[in-house]
């Protein structure tokens, strides 16, 4: 279900979209849990309630846009003891923007993206559960009870196109991802350490500052 609003003229583009989405028939296995539900076999659903706003302003040789989204994304697994909890991929708040200068065959772009952290599950204690010595386990808090730190990335690109005929051209460009070289934490989970004496956390980070170059031939 979606209710939206669109407005457009020569300089402005505005879209507003409010939506509700329900997806049935998902399984706990396919959702990639790395907590107390990692080996569960449950069937359920997730529900998303959200809002998305997009604004674009055009000028003679450049334009800029801004997008914002708000999402509440909840799991419901009736056979699990925690029936309702945040989706593994829920980003409650998200904001992105870009400024682009485009003149003839030359283009410069600067863009950024920010969003709130994804949820993850923390252990209830630092002590391993050895009730079953053959299968030591980690006792967890409620699923997805904490959130990662906010994500922010600033990117830039420059490109130019040379046309030789109506159908033949070459485009060359360079770009830099994560200009500020920010450490963005994108995933965290816990495991029993290699010697089986304690619990350790594993952190996964997005790419650090990354330059790119491309050449594209069209004909």
Description:
The chain is an all-beta fold and 219 residues long. The protein has no helices and 14 strands. The strands form 3 sheets. Strands 1, 2, 3, 4, 5, 6, 7, 10, 11 and 14 form a 10-stranded antiparallel beta sheet that branches. A two-stranded antiparallel ribbon has the order 8-9. A two-stranded antiparallel ribbon has the order 12-13. 8% of the residues are buried. The mean pLDDT is 94.
Sequence-ordered SSE layout with sheet pairings:
Elements: E1 2-8, E2 12-27, E3 43-58, E4 62-76, E5 84-86, E6 93-103, E7 106-115, E8 119-120, E9 146-147, E10 151-163, E11 169-177, E12 185-192, E13 199-205, E14 210-218
Antiparallel strand pairs: 1-2, 2-3, 3-4, 4-5, 4-6, 6-7, 7-10, 8-9, 10-11, 11-14, 12-13
Mean pLDDT reading: 94
Strands, count: 14
**String of helices and strands:** EEEEEEEEEEEEEE
Provide the β-strand percentage band.
over 45%
Question: What features would you highlight for this structure?
Answer:
single chain, 219 residues, mainly beta, ten-stranded antiparallel sheet, two-stranded antiparallel ribbon, 0% helix, elongated
In brief, what are we looking at here?
This protein is mainly beta and 219 residues long. The protein contains no helices and 14 strands.
